[in-house]
Design goal:
Elements (H helix, E strand, L loop, with lengths): L3 E5 L3 H18 L21 E7 L5 E8 L1 H7 L3 H5 E2 L10 E9 L6 H17 L4 E9 L9 H13 L9 E2 L18 H8 L3 E2 L4 E3 L4 E9 L5 H13 L1
Parallel strand pairs: 5-6
Antiparallel strand pairs: 1-2, 2-3, 3-5, 4-7, 6-10, 8-10, 9-10
């Protein structure tokens, strides 16, 4: 693995680099139908309100991983989070003042090893501590064709698995606006969740309810929440270490 460096985008050119990576992953690799705002880029109305986290390959200076982060203040300015479009988040209203939304997470196909994701999460931990925020939410996507299984059966099966082991308390449940019709799908398959979802679950994340269907991205989206207080002790130590070094 080559050396990597993590930074926050400071100007529009750097945001454009993240948007180009997102286009490569979501449109060219996963087949998403994206707005044609800027050719070769994934751009939406939330981008101008978000902080953009970048991981670069030091040798090439290419952006190889990215997240975008919507803070409570900026969510108020734009009027909602992206997750509000897919889910009714009424039950999370008591958390919003200290809640950030993570979105558009992706890593270049040639760099999908644990180091890039850990670097992103370390920088997110520092950001949360610095801004006195304690809750992260977001939509975690399962492609409608996942592990060779098409038409949403994998997503239905993953939902069955995670609701048995990682479902949040009922007071935090949310409702999809366009639900994946899980009752019509085969949910008995033995399929692994995508790596990012597995990573979130290892960090103590909870699933907030049944998946929504996102037709533009052709994915099933699980609503997820991760609270700093719920991190396992070994990860909390790692995250606290990252925050202390900043």
């Amino acid at each position: 693995m080559g050396k990597i460096a993590v930074s926050w985008a400071r100007h529009q050119d750097e945001v454009r680099q993240a948007q180009r990576l997102r286009y490569q992953v979501f449109a060219l690799e996963m087949g998403a139908t994206l707005p044609k705002t800027l050719p070769g880029h994934d751009v939406d109305l939330f981008d101008d309100y978000c902080e953009h986290l970048l991981v670069r390959d030091v040798a090439s200076q290419e952006v190889i991983g990215t997240y975008r982060v919507l803070t409570p203040t900026q969510a108020t300015r734009v009027g909602s989070t992206y997750s509000d479009i897919e889910f009714d988040l009424t039950r999370l209203r008591s958390l919003r003042a200290r809640m950030v939304e993570l979105g558009r997470s992706c890593v270049h196909a040639d760099h999908r090893h644990g180091g890039v994701i850990l670097a992103l999460w370390g920088a997110l931990a520092e950001f949360m501590a610095r801004n006195q925020l304690d809750t992260m939410i977001g939509c975690a996507s399962i492609p409608m064709q996942h592990n060779g299984v098409s038409n949403g059966h994998a997503a239905a099966s993953i939902w069955r698995q995670v609701r048995q082991t990682h479902l949040a308390a009922i007071e935090y449940h949310v409702t999809p606006r366009l639900a994946l019709p899980v009752e019509l799908l085969d949910d008995s398959l033995d399929v692994e969740p995508p790596a990012l979802i597995k990573g979130y679950l290892r960090l103590g994340a909870k699933v907030l309810g049944a998946p929504a269907w996102d037709p533009d991205f052709n994915s099933a989206d699980l609503p997820m929440m991760m609270r700093i207080a719920d991190l396992p002790p070994r990860y909390l130590k790692h995250f606290s270490g990252n925050a202390a070094q900043a």
